[in-house]
Design a protein that fits this description.
217 residues, mainly alpha, Vanadium-containing Chloroperoxidase, domain 2, 8 helices, globular
Length: 217
């Protein structure tokens, strides 16, 4: 006898848990909202799956694959450290620190307690020409989106001229994860939000440490 599947959308998981506890009327309203969000999340995933843009399949598939293990961001950090002078080195260190903190928070904490399964690409008719390897980790939140946002925000705050191109690159990576079918949109939004907060905090700390060291000289 097979065990029932865990609901895919994280909103549905929360709704099921609230319903099982038979809480007050207010919670029933929350349950309805969560279930509606779950339906919207699936609908948004299917909408992206239905987009007919074959010329984008290979580029976005490659972007999604290349973003594994934060390779683009470590590459940018290396270039900044080598050719960016003192400011570039500080930004590179800040960006790498943000990646490390983000990994601890997202990959080693939130993902481990979230029970959201990955989307079923066949069920939602994601074209196979877009497919990348389906990760074995839980779906919520998106680690790729979180690391991209953490690096883009932290380095962008340290080097404002890089803010727009880095955030644009982070957005492309995030979208590629839905386009290739390995994440729901809510995973992307949650991951990017957490990553952006980590990046902002890391940059604030780095800038304050820099100001303090200059004041002591």
């Amino acid at each position: 006898m097979t065990s029932p599947k865990t609901p895919e959308p994280v909103e549905e998981q929360l709704a099921d848990r609230l319903s099982a506890r038979h809480l007050r009327v207010q919670s029933s309203r929350v349950v309805r909202v969560l279930r509606q969000l779950g339906r919207m999340d699936r609908a948004a995933y299917r909408t992206v799956a239905d987009i007919h843009t074959p010329p984008l399949d290979r580029p976005l598939r490659r972007v999604s694959d290349f973003a594994d293990f934060s390779k683009p961001w470590f590459l940018v950090a290396g270039v900044l450290a080598l050719f960016g002078g003192p400011r570039g080195r500080r930004a590179a260190v800040t960006g790498v620190a943000a990646l490390g903190l983000n990994s601890l928070l997202v990959n080693q904490s939130i993902k481990l307690i979230s029970e959201r399964r990955r989307p079923d690409r066949k069920e939602h008719s994601v074209p196979q020409s877009r497919w990348v390897r389906m990760p074995g980790s839980n779906s919520f939140p998106s680690g790729h989106s979180a690391s991209a946002a953490a690096f883009a925000v932290s380095v962008g705050d340290m080097l404002p001229p890089f803010r727009v191109p880095l955030r644009a690159a982070a957005a492309i990576v995030a979208f590629s994860r839905v386009y290739t079918g390995v994440h729901y949109p809510a995973d992307i939004v949650a991951g990017a939000t957490v990553g952006a907060l980590v990046g902002k905090v890391t940059a604030i700390v780095a800038l304050r440490l820099r100001a303090s060291s200059q004041h002591l000289r």
